[in-house]
């Protein structure tokens, strides 16, 4: 039972780590804590639920396309025109976009929850060493690990990846050295959209349902994780997201039934203490960098 709970917690942590990575990528380049990332997750989830009967490959491809396209549209239509705005203005803009997109989803898809059996085979359990583990937990851990590995290789071994890292470290200097701002920022938004689709898939398989506010909860918790880890650094953001997801899962498993609904309150309390003691994040030395 303990091992099963531990595997589930690692799976949840990996999922939150992916969500935190998508948020951290955009923050690194634009200093934008994008609350509308939740709505990017939501559009991928709606696509999966509405198209799964067309086949897994087609549905997954459409979900990735939808989330990447929405991320690029938000970047081009809104954030590109606000690139020189300060961080607080960008934050408010992302809040506004989040609420706007939720209302758009209500108009297009309705307020009622949409349901579908997405990848039902992953809901079954398998026995490993005498322990029964849900297939989805194992798949989530493997997929998250592969995505993190691929992205790590891309960022460290490709020209575009190195440009993204340079822009994340010092955007103004990177532009002076020839990094094309529009291309790099659009790329980070596109990658964050693809990561959002992966997160949406795992969540939809778990719940089988999607609503206009589907992506809000995981986005808030992933952002909190990114902040306590150190949102200024991608690796730290992932670790922070993993920690929040892991702790949230453990609390869900072991808190008494009449208290478990308040698990997020415990998470927020821990976050406040951490930020008071170390405002720059647990894994970051010194203050968070400001965009030049």
Brief digest:
The protein is mostly helical.
Word description of this protein:
By secondary structure, this protein is mostly helical. The chain has a single domain (2-277), classed as ABC transporter involved in vitamin B12 uptake, BtuC (Orthogonal Bundle). The chain has helices at residues 2-30, 37-51, 56-77, 87-109, 135-157, 159-169, 171-176, 181-207, 216-229, 234-254, 263-277; strands at 114-115, 125-128, 131-134, 209-210. A hairpin with a 2-residue loop joins strand 2 (125-128) and strand 3. Helix 9 (216-229) crosses helix 10. The longest helix has 29 residues, at 2-30. It is globular, with a radius of gyration of 19 Å. Its main location: membrane. The chain crosses the membrane at residues 12-32, 52-78, 90-109, 129-151, 184-204, 210-231, 238-256, 262-284. GO terms for molecular function: transmembrane transporter activity. It comes from Georgenia yuyongxinii. It is found in: Cell membrane.
What's the structural blueprint in terms of helices and strands?
Elements: H1 2-30, H2 37-51, H3 56-77, H4 87-109, E1 114-115, E2 125-128, E3 131-134, H5 135-157, H6 159-169, H7 171-176, H8 181-207, E4 209-210, H9 216-229, H10 234-254, H11 263-277
Antiparallel strand pairs: 1-4, 2-3
Helix pairs in contact: 1-5, 1-6, 1-8, 1-9, 1-10, 2-3, 2-4, 2-8, 2-9, 3-8, 5-6, 5-8, 6-8, 9-10, 9-11
């Amino acid at each position: 039972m303990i091992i099963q709970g531990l595997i589930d917690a690692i799976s949840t942590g990996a999922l939150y780590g992916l969500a935190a990575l998508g948020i951290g990528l955009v923050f690194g380049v634009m200093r934008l804590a994008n609350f509308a990332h939740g709505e990017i997750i939501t559009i991928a989830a709606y696509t999966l639920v509405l198209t799964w009967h067309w086949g897994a490959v087609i549905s997954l491809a459409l979900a990735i396309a939808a989330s990447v396209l929405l991320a690029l549209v938000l970047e081009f239509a809104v954030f590109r025109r606000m690139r020189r705005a300060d961080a607080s203005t960008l934050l408010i803009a992302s809040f506004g976009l989040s609420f706007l997109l939720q209302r758009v989803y209500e108009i297009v898809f309705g307020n009622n929850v949409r349901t579908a059996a997405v990848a039902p085979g992953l809901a079954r359990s398998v026995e490993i060493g005498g322990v029964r583990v849900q297939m989805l937990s194992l798949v989530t851990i493997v997929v998250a690990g592969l995505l993190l590995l691929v992205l790590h290789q891309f960022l460290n071994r490709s020209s575009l990846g190195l440009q993204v890292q340079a822009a994340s470290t010092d955007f103004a200097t990177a532009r002076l050295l020839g990094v094309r701002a529009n291309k790099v920022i659009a790329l980070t938004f596109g990658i964050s959209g693809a990561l959002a689709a992966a997160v949406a898939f795992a969540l939809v398989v778990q719940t089988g349902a999607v609503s206009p506010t589907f992506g809000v909860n995981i986005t808030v918790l992933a952002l909190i994780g990114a902040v306590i880890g150190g949102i200024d650094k991608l690796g730290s953001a992932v670790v922070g997201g993993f920690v929040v997801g892991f702790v949230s899962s453990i609390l869900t498993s072991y808190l008494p039934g009449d208290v478990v609904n308040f698990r997020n309150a415990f998470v927020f309390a821990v976050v406040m203490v951490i930020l008071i003691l170390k405002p720059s994040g647990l894994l970051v030395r010194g203050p968070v960098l400001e965009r030049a």
